[in-house]
Amino acid sequence: MPVNSFENYPMSWKPQKADLEKPYYLSIAASLEKDILSGVLPENTMLPPQRELADFLDLNLSTITRAYKLCELKGLLYAVTGKGTFVSPGISVQDTFLDKSSPVIEMGMIKPFYECNQSVLRAAGKVVNNPDNIRLLEYSNPFGTKRQIKAARKWLHYFGIDAPKEQILLSAGAQNALSVVLISLFKAGDKIAVDAFTYTNFKRLANFLHIQLISIETDGCGMSPNALLHACRNTEIKGLYLMPTCSNPTSIFMPAARRQEIADIARQFHLLLIEDDIYSFLAPNHVTSFFSILPEQTVHICSISKSLCAGLRVAFLAFAANYKEALAAGMLNINLKTPSLNGEIAAELIESGIALHIVHKKLALAERRNRIFKSVFDVPGQDDIVRFFYWLPLPAHLTSEEMELRALQRGVHILGSHRFAMTSIQKSSYIRVSVTSPDTEDDLRKGLLILKHIFRENA
User: Which of 325, 307, 371 is nearest to 158 (CA)?
Assistant: First the structure.
């Protein structure tokens, strides 16, 4: 039974209108979810009646109704006829959005074709069964062994990165690499320019380190040079973070001409450019990396989690010589080191040629799934570039928050643009749809048709 009653009610929850932003129902729902998950509103707390909260905030009743409904669909609230609306029991800080035991079609997280892991397992077996490799179980060079650095240089060279071995380090995945870069080369209060929709883990990391991210307008080719130029002239920006190859979440491939324009601005304003190129293996051959255009100001991060194996947690850093001392010190100060065994398995994959075989197989699998996607959804300005995910604009009657919930009710997990947005402008206008994550191509087609049906409802 609910622990509250009308007698001990009045106004158990009082959001301040000054703290809300439009659209108000989304802001109210987000504020309510935050207070529930943080424990400010304990389980079974009775919320203010919708009409009374509407009067308190001087908003329409329908606004409050929509906010409560969104939280109810997420499982945060429950209603008792004749009594009111209450906070659901058993709510914790864990993700309430997706019940991971539910039989859903996964199109939210980006799975990199796990069926290719058999090739990785065989390479791992060869490494483990070599008696000389018992040394890999000892403390080892935290920056990578000579063989591992040689393999890293070879792998980077496949994608147009020509860095001397002295300017390459191994890290425990892209997140570790980004942490090292921000801790080593930036300080609290520094400003880094980013796309209007930006990789969520980078946003969280920058926030944790008290580094300010400056949102830059983006178009179909990526970050706008004019917008970046304006920001640099009016704000003291120190760095620039980009995912130029299949940017997450927008899936934009920045063309060569745009890369040159951005690099010219970075050079003019002495910006430290962080090139997070986890999808470099998807890039057309003629596209040049920022490291190749602006090697003296770029730190290039190439994780193998999507191209080869997510479980190995290995990434390669290529950087200008003047950054080496700071990056090496930063890496030593972070406890998370690349296990030498992981680095050796990655080296074996690369030196044996298995790595390229895996990439070609993943490209072929992704190309098949891209065709399925394009058979269901019309993609503006279609190109032949293979993608692991797509960025879909929503019809005007849907927000990304509502789309996530409606899709989940139909058995499909996706991610909305509100999770990636730097500002409130059009933050709820898109969804990111992974085509590589459904278990089968039939599941992919089924999930896409469900999404398309939701698009057309109440249009």
Answer: 307
